[in-house]
């Protein structure tokens, strides 16, 4: 994906102020930034859900201004709340999302068999989602987002509230998907996860504060962790000023 001078204004508020970057297919791309920095607005424009005020870009090789519908059909979206039906089983949730994406019953059944193994949700296919732990729900939500074989996965804080073992397993699944050429756009507030991204964009007040590999960002800032780079940006180099706000 690539964007050029992408901008969005809400009245006089400049939510995204003309950002440009390029992300190769098959990358795990982390979009980081404090609350209100413009991440969701950027994602909405990339997914073809919101028209930019200025600038443009391509996602999956499609122009975000003119091919928004095709882009939407090739995206799998997973929200922080997982958006699963708790009173349906894993299998029923997968069938529900498969039907929404227009797959036939046979197609969904074939996809389910593949996804149970791939997403490590084998053995509890017929268990109600409401009775599953956070990690199982998270992997089920990933399977649902991936049921129609999208080429781009958009994951909005996908590991919030999930234990460390499940988080690690989840990131291993993402590594596998990226290795198969799926592009993954992820937002997270966990800097250990940000360091697992191939590319990271740090947003601040609608601007792109930094963009590159985690190593590049740390080297440029002369810091040994992405957390330090992030905190330095978010506090303008003065952590105590931010804390006392
Ligand atoms: N539809 C809208 N109308 C008016 N203002 C909006 C709208 N959507 C977002 N904003 C404003 O644009 C700015 C950027 O918001 P955005 O949701 O993109 O930030 P964010 O980085 O995703 O934040 P968070 O981490 O809290 O989700 C904020 O000041 C927000 O209040």
Description:
There is one protein chain. Strand 7 (152-156), helix 6 (164-179) and strand 8 form a beta-alpha-beta unit. Helix 3 (90-100) packs across helix 4 (105-118), helix 3 (90-100) runs parallel beside helix 5 (134-145) and helix 5 (134-145) packs parallel to helix 6 (164-179). The longest helix is centred in the C-terminal third of the chain and has 16 residues, at 164-179. The radius of gyration is 19 Å and the shape is globular. The protein is of the alpha/beta class and 245 residues long. It has 2 domains: 14-56 and 63-74 and 151-245, Rossmann fold (3-Layer(aba) Sandwich), CATH 3.40.50.300; 84-150, no CATH class. The chain contains 10 helices and 10 strands. The model has no long low-confidence stretch (mean pLDDT 93). It has helices at 39-46, 68-73, 90-100, 105-118, 134-145, 164-179, 191-194, 214-221, 226-234, 239-243, and strands at residues 2-10, 13-22, 28-32, 54-59, 62-63, 75-78, 152-156, 183-187, 199-204, 207-212. A 6-stranded mixed beta sheet has the order 6-7-8-3-9-10. It has a 4-stranded antiparallel beta sheet with strand order 2-1-4-5. Helix content is 38%, strand content 24%.
């Amino acid at each position: 994906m690539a964007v050029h001078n992408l901008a969005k204004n809400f009245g006089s508020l400049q939510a995204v102020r003309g950002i440009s970057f390029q992300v190769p297919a098959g990358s795990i791309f982390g979009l980081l930034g404090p609350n209100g920095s413009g991440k969701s607005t950027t994602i909405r424009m990339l997914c073809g859900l919101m028209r930019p005020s200025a600038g443009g870009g391509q996602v999956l090789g499609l122009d975000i201004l003119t091919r928004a519908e095709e882009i939407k059909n090739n995206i799998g979206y997973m929200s922080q709340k997982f958006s699963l039906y708790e009173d349906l089983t894993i299998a029923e949730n997968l069938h529900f999302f498969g039907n929404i994406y227009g797959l036939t019953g046979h197609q969904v059944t074939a996809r389910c068999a593949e996804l149970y193994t791939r997403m490590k949700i084998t053995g509890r296919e017929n268990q109600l989602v409401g009775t599953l732990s956070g990690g199982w729900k998270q992997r089920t939500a990933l399977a649902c987002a991936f049921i129609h074989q999208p080429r781009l996965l958009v994951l909005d804080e996908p590991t919030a509230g999930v234990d460390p073992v499940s988080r690690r397993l989840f990131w291993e699944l993402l590594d596998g998907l990226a290795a198969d050429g799926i592009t993954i756009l992820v937002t997270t507030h966990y800097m250990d996860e940000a360091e697992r991204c191939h590319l990271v964009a740090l947003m601040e007040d609608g601007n792109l504060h930094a963009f590159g590999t985690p190593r590049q960002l740390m080297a440029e800032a002369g810091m040994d962790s992405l957390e330090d780079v992030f905190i330095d940006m978010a506090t303008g180099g003065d952590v105590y000023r931010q804390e006392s706000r």
